Amino acid sequence: MNPSPSRHLVLLHGNLGSWRDWDFIIPPLREKGIACHPLNLWELIGQGCSSLEEAGRMIASFAHPHTPCALMGYSLGGRLALHALQAAPQAWNRIAFISTHPGLQTETDRHARLAADLEQAARCRNLPPADFLRLWNNQGVLADSGQGPSPDYPQEQAARAFDIWSLGRQADMRTSLQASAHKILWLAGEQDAKFSALAHTIPGIGPTLVPGAGHRLLQQAPAAIIQTALSLFPQA
Question: pLDDT tens for residues 167-183?
Fold first, then answer.
């Protein structure tokens, strides 16, 4: 009988994605004695989550209190990881943020983003998933990032996420991140102009830019993601 894993990694997928997006990372980490816990973010909404802050508290409840536990979030999952860090900073030994927005810096930008996300919520709710994903994948930051998620997300929960987890409802987290800078890794694709620039705006955190990759690092640079996950546990 194999011993129980002594290290744990909680994984948060991106918008319109799935917990299955992390399948590639599970076998190599299991070989190193690290148990992966990819969360289904849509289930949080199904359980009544109504804000970014509440999502952070719910995610923090998955941390393992008596063994080293790390957190890794991609895109929307990275923004939820910001709130899980805020909710329980002592719960996480280390955190990796992948293609993550640290927050808009003006109230005007937040209002504009929330209005845009509420329009996206209406489209997500009313269009067939394949049609909505076609529009979603044509966005500038995603257009050159390869194959995205398949159209199997739950429409109502995904539409709700555009509202309650909107970037327009998120505070600028840059200042609060400084207190945890020693435990943070921040990744962006070198070809992702927007998010690689954002990665350099966080005081005290030197980002890693992944060569040859755009926004969708899980699909475009799986080896780099696996190595990052292993580096969250120095003894792995």
Answer: 999 999 999 999 999 99
